[in-house]
Amino acid sequence: SYELTQPPSMSVSPGQTARITCSGDALPKQYAYWYQQKPGQAPVLVIYKDTERPSGIPERFSGSSSGTTVTLTISGVQAEDEADYYCQSADSRATYWVFGGGTKLTVL
Amino acid sequence: EVQLVESGGGLVQPGQSLRLSCTVSGFTFGDSAMSWVRQAPGKGLEWVAFIRSKANGGKTEYAASVKGRFTISRDDSKRIAYLQMNSLKTEDTGVYYCTRDNYDPFTGMDVWGQGTTVTVSS
């Protein structure tokens, strides 16, 4: 079955830039989406279609894509950005969705 | 206000059944595809099931882990999406989220409910 691979955790200091990667063989063919989830809350969509930001999401959140890897970048990280981040995409035939294992972002 | 409200979760024994409901308000449910996503305690997100709008054929898709046991359906007149879960296993335990799934135009799962908890235990 298809898998998306994310680093389990990362930590950054406030004001620094966090880059969270997600790798998968079908990513050159399928769009990626990113979700932020804080403890006890439902996930929130922060990036869609690899690079697009929904209304209401701060500009410090951006997405990029290169080959089999997509990246969520958070510029000027703030304490409130501490959360779990999940990438999501489809298999190569777009028959099912897959989520990455999630990355726990800690703001030092 | 755009809102999804899940209900129907609870404690059941292995092998039993449960039906989850997702009541929608604030947008045109009949035009929307929906997905169910679950999260086991302390674990990541897992997509479970998907249903297209009736205008797009109402096609359904399932994760391999639930195919043949779970059924997603919709009642557009009541604005409710359902997840019928049969032959439940302990590994089905978790929080189940209903989402609006904008698979096309590729704008993602942009609306989520607060989740309903399913516990499968003897």
Task: Output the keywords.
heterodimer, A: 108 residues, mainly beta, 6-stranded mixed β-sheet, 9 strands, 44% strand, globular, B: 122 residues, 4-stranded antiparallel β-sheet
Describe the structure.
The complex is a heterodimer of chains A (about 110) and B (about 120). Helix content of chain A is about 0%, strand content about 45%. Chain A has no helices and 9 strands. In chain A, strands 1, 3, 4, 7, 8 and 9 form a 6-stranded mixed beta sheet that branches. In chain A, strands 2-6-5 form a 3-stranded antiparallel beta sheet, with no helix packed on it. The N and C termini of chain A lie far apart (about 35 Å). Chain B is mostly beta strands and about 120 residues long. Chain B is about 0% helix and about 50% strand. Chain B is built from no helices and 11 strands. In chain B, strands 2, 4, 5, 6, 9, 10 and 11 form a 7-stranded mixed beta sheet that branches. In chain B, strand 5 and strand 6 form a beta hairpin. The interface between A and B is medium-sized, with 24 and 22 residues.
Structural category of chain B = mainly beta
N-to-C CA distance of chain A: 36 Å
Q: Helix-strand pattern of chain A, N to C?
A: EEEEEEEEE
Oligomer: heterodimer
How many strand units of chain A?
9
**Beta-strand content estimate of chain A:** 35-45%
Q: N- to C-terminal separation of chain B?
A: 40 Å
Mean pLDDT across all amino acids of chain A: 97
Helix count of chain B equals: 0
- What is the radius of gyration of chain B computed over CA atoms, rounded to a whole number of angstroms? 14 Å
What is the typical, i.e. mean, pLDDT of chain B?
A: 97
Radius of gyration of chain A: 13 Å
How much of the sequence lies in strands of chain B comes to: over 45%
Counted beta strands of chain B? 11
Q: Low-confidence spans of chain A: pLDDT under 50, at least 5 residues?
A: none
Identify the overall geometry of chain B: globular
List SSEs of chain B in N-to-C order: EEEEEEEEEEE
User: Which structural class fits the helix and strand makeup of chain A?
Assistant: mainly beta
Give the chain pair forming the largest contact, with residue counts: A-B, 24 and 22 residues
